[in-house]
Amino acid sequence: MVELLSIVLASASPRRFELLTSLGLHVDVRPSGLDEGDRPGYGPRELAAFHASAKADAGAVAVSSGVVVAADTVVDLDGVSLGKPRTMAEAASMLRALSGREHLVHTAYTVADVPSGRRIAGLLTTRVQFARLSEDVIATYVASGDPMDKAGSYGIQGRGAALVERIDGDFHTVMGFPLGDFVRRLPELGYALPPPPLVPAA
After folding, report:
1. Neighbours of 198 (CB within 10 A)
2. DSSP 3-state assignment of 134?
3. CATH of the domain at 53
4. What own/partner pairs with CB < 8 Å and gap ≥ 24 does 40-45 have?
5. How many domains does the chain have?
6. Does the residue 198 lie in any domain?
7. 170 φ, ψ to 5°?
8. Which stretches of the chain score pLDDT less than 50?
9. 126, 167 Cβ separation under 8 angstroms
10. What is the pLDDT of residue 1?
11. pLDDT of 200
12. 13 domain-assigned
């Protein structure tokens, strides 16, 4: 098993960068530039899987070696895909639709080992129940700017935590990258995380 010390992240998401660096990895951010718009005929799960795979493909083409990691998150409300809002009005509209409702969050990821050409792919789903949101709560959250780069117009971390009543599933999947599943599956590519640094005794 080879220690995985660094990865190329084919995403500009600060949440994914934060999560992956929390594993002790050096993360080289190289956004794929993929258009993440809707694709006719693709349901929410299929859309997330397609985008994650396409981002990994773009990332692998851009580098000559290393391990490329890509992911995509889609909020699924009754089978309708909610992506990133284009305007503040659209963000408010999404939050009204989610208010007091249960929805699904699908996060797909692809890991490509460029030298060998091997890859793994995963897709996890978490069920999320929103609290009932007043117009004041929605307006304040939208005005914060927090919804504008997030699928479904919210993030479960930070200010967005107040919108969520409960979840059934993996928290990191809602945040944008299923860390646990990623770490457990790395050995399929022959990699493992390095041991944590030793902490000097007090």
Report:
1. 6
2. coil
3. 3.90.950.10
4. 42/81, 43/76, 43/79, 43/81, 44/74, 44/75, 44/76, 44/79, 44/80, 44/81, 44/104, 44/106, 45/74, 45/76, 45/106, 45/108, 45/123, 45/125
5. 1
6. no
7. -90, 120
8. none
9. yes
10. 87
11. 66
12. yes
- pTM greater than 0.90 (yes/no): yes
Q: Are 164 and 129 in contact (CB under 8 A)?
A: yes
Half-sphere exposure of 160 (CA within 13 A, CB side): 21
CB 143 within 8 A of CB 95: no
Q: Map tokens 């851009």 to a residue.
A: 62
Q: Distance of CA 93 to CAs 2, 3, 112, 135, 148, Å?
A: 47, 46, 37, 11, 12
Q: State the residue range of the domain holding 173.
A: 2-192
Up-side HSE of residue 198: CA atoms within 13 Å toward CB?
A: 3
Q: Could you read off the pLDDT of 6-31 as tens digits, one per residue?
A: 999 999 899 999 999 999 999 999 98
Residue 60 counted as domain residue? yes
Tokens of 32: 């794929």
Question: Does 185 map to a domain?
Answer: yes
Active site amino acids: 72
